[in-house]
């Protein structure tokens, strides 16, 4: 059984959110409540988010997203064309 990265990210996200919600619903003085909330937060931001970003950025050229002089000129040219067409 091969789990796709997309399904793994969704599973980790749901588990993290479930852990946070469970920690928030525990009684106020319960000693494990902060551990559930913290574990869910760590899972969400240090595990699920980097996996999602890795999955989505695979195969994309990072130079296309950098603010270089060439890319700024392209964006300004597109803006000029939009205003002329309206």
**How many strands appear in the DSSP assignment?**
0
User: Which band does the percent of strand residues land in?
Assistant: under 5%
Number of domains: 1
Give the C-alpha Rg.
21 Å
Residues in helices, as a percent range: over 70%
- Terminal CA distance reads 54 Å
Overall average residue pLDDT: 88
Largest sheet: none
SS-derived structural category: mainly alpha
Number of helices: 3
- Identify the overall geometry: elongated
- The helix/strand order is HHH
> Low-confidence spans: pLDDT under 50, at least 5 residues?
none
Structural descriptors:
73% helix, 86 residues, mainly alpha
Topology:
Layout (H helix, E strand, L loop, with lengths): L4 H21 L7 H25 L11 H17 L1
Helix pairs in contact: 1-2
Polypeptide structure, described:
It contains three helices and no strands. The chain is an all-alpha fold. The protein has one domain. The radius of gyration is 21 Å and the shape is elongated. The relative contact order is 0.11.
Summarize it.
The protein has helices spanning 5-25, 33-57, 69-85. By secondary structure, it is an all-alpha fold.
């Amino acid at each position: 059984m091969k789990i796709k990265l997309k399904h793994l990210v969704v599973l980790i996200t749901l588990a993290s959110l479930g852990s946070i919600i469970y920690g928030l619903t525990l009684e106020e003085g319960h000693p494990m409540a902060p551990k559930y909330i913290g574990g869910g937060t760590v899972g969400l931001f240090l595990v699920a988010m980097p996996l999602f970003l890795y999955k989505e950025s695979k195969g994309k050229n990072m130079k296309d997203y950098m603010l270089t002089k060439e890319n700024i000129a392209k964006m300004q040219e597109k803006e000029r064309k939009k205003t002329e067409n309206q």
